[in-house]
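Handout, tutorial session.
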Amino acid sequence: MSIHDDMHNVAVIGAGAAGLAASIFAAEAAAKGDRPQRIMLLDGAKTIGAKILVSGGGRCNVTHDVVTPIDFFGNRHIIKNVLAAFPVQATIDWFASLGVDLKREETGKLFPVTDKARTILSALVNRCHEVGVVIRPDHRVTDVACLTGSEAGFVIHHTHGILQAKKVILATGGRSLPKTGSDGFGYELARRLGHRVTATTPALVPLLLDEALFHKDLSGISQEVELTTTVHGRVVDRRTGSLLWTHFGISGPVVMDASRFWTSAREKGESVDLSVNFLPALTQESARQWFMEQAGGAPRRSLTKTLAHLVTERFAEALCRYLGINGQTAIAQLPRKDRDRMLVALTKFRLPVQQDRGWNYAEVTAGGVPLEKINFRTMESKLVPSLYLVGEILDCDGRIGGFNFQWAWATGLLAGRAVSANVRTDGEARR
């Protein structure tokens, strides 16, 4: 058993995106300033970077071509300042310097040209090695405590011994995808060091529907919809995008983005509803007018064939079966009550959400250490000097599409440069 009981300059806990970035920027800043640093990167997993490897369907959605504070939830004033320190073009240039070219897809998402997440992870790990960062996988941190007396710094207990460091960067991630190592223990470390943690809930997570619905019949089909979330009857979110039907319920970008509102409300015990307009370009009244026009122009066409001009025929058939309406009825012969029921179902369908799919399928965590307790110029804790927090452990979560990775890179840069520049929270140089 090896015991690292000597003093390091910086210990980074967590070798995910934010931790790797922070380590690299810390080592580069130290080298540039001719201030050699001993930087140790600890991770509990035997193989680091699992979350990077599974992201973006194994392709790693590195960032988005346009990133604004509106794309995130949390203190947007602070988020704005953090993002400004490392904008998208800086991310593109940084990865180019690591030998990774990125490409933009129609959605605005940026991926490595190789379409392989391994390219991203390898580039980050290789750069760590180049700049002298010591990476220790299979070194799960069990406790972090502030040193008392004349020696400033921290004592870090891990599964192979003890490490002392002058500064610590917490990059432990949240609770999403625990199989990758993000089991939420970082929040406990933050609490032990004096930080409060806001309630955490799954975000960017698929939703499970009542078994009685028709989703299993539509598994694999995606369609453009308008999704509305109401809490206690008040609209808290409305967005348009692609919904994917699955064997368990619903997924797709619009659902993943909306899910944080549903999970947050449910966690608080609030009444929450999710309704969908399957005709996002139409209101209920304009849809009614369209129906009347179809009845006049093609009176003998069946209901499902008529609906197929707006939605897929398979969806039209499933919806008719669910409503108990004969889809083969000629559109002109459709009873008014059935037409009205169909109009409501098409434009304001209440989704019977039972629960979210849980942490194992959530892509990110909502909640965490409040941003207000962090110096946004350095990511240093306002409560514990020389403690820095980056990435998902913070109370900030972005929508789907590379935004959470951009947050990881930006916070990693700020913390990494700060620990090597010895910047105090008040801007004065530390001796």
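The second record follows below. Compare its token runs with those of the first.
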Amino acid sequence: MIDRAFITVLLLSISGFVFCAVYMPLENLAYRYTSAKTMVTVNTIALFSFVLPLYLVTSFADGSEAAFRTYDTLILDNSGGYESFVIAVRGLNITEHLSDLWFLGVVCTLLYRSGKYFCSLYHLISNKFEIDDGLWAVEFEKLKQEKKVHHVFLIGSYRLTTPCTFGLRKRYIAIPAAMINSFERDEVELILQHEFYHMVHKDLLRKFFIMLLGCIHWFNPLFHFLKENLLYWQEAACDEEITNNLDDGEKRRYVHLFIKILEVQSENDESEKIGLHFVRDDLGDYKRRLEKIMRKSDKTRVKGKVAVASVALLSMFCGNVVAKAADVPVNQMFSENIEIVELGTREKIKATDMELDTLFEYTESTKEGTFVEFTVCNTEDTTYEIVYKNPKTTVTAVQNPIDPQHIHQMEDFVWKEHKKNSDGSCKTT
């Protein structure tokens, strides 16, 4: 089970890489023709390309997935290229432990992130205080009714240095204690609008699922890059929603909010660990957001969305096509359900070590039309030698025959029986 899951994750990593190779160079161009909200959707699709094994539909249809789920012998011709590389690597006996290492990484990453999340949540909740009156409370209740958002609470915290939204079922908008008396009414409204948009767009739930997916792809730096890119676009989408109908002067006041919040930020902020925060400490992201806020919107939204969505879907399709093409090579390299042997390899087996289903009755027709019959005996003094030869070009072990490149069924071999007689002599058949 772990072996099959590991191989699926590797193939999905290939699919996600192809998606990014096709789409990411076009990301800035795509934003010129659509909205930040659409970019959030596209980046979500990019991340889900790492977990949606669409190629498996074809693998089940042609029988290759069923074939690789059964234990079999794959005979490879070590004449150069990828097959010689497979034989060399698997001969080192390192690939068989990689799936266990990956699974251990998944468990450790999940425990680490869960621990960090609940620890930060505990510190925030234990140091919170209610904001039930004053300017913040008034604006909060007004927006709560306007946005029709329920099960959300406004709190203050001594552990934060930037406004933050966190929680799934019971959600909170947390305001740093140092900011309670530091902002004007219009600034308070803008900050709360930003945090409410996170809830309206389901950004918290999105971040939670992405965190779980990150545990599966803990070894993949590209996935973590895309996760950070998605967080940026989530913040940009909230900025866009707020500033779309503002004039240049009002946009400048919104930009000044960033500066005021940055003045009180520190390295002890807990918001990054549990939720979404107004201003991140990444100055590169900060600069990109400001540029987009001040840029005039001249986007053809409908056409832009269709074009960008089409490119994203095409990228996902290309990724799964490549993943399907890599299906067999990856299975050859890492599958524990197959045994790799080199063409011409000879293997000696004692009869007592043979499985019961290995015993068979051999029948061969002669030119004269008679039959030569003998039974492979399971006696202590009998050994057999298998000579691995070229496999045939058809596979009958699978319900649906598959293409020759998928063949891993040993069908052509020679048995040599070496029997020790009671008088000490040997007889080879």
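Points raised in discussion: The chain has two domains: 2-126+190-332, 345-428.
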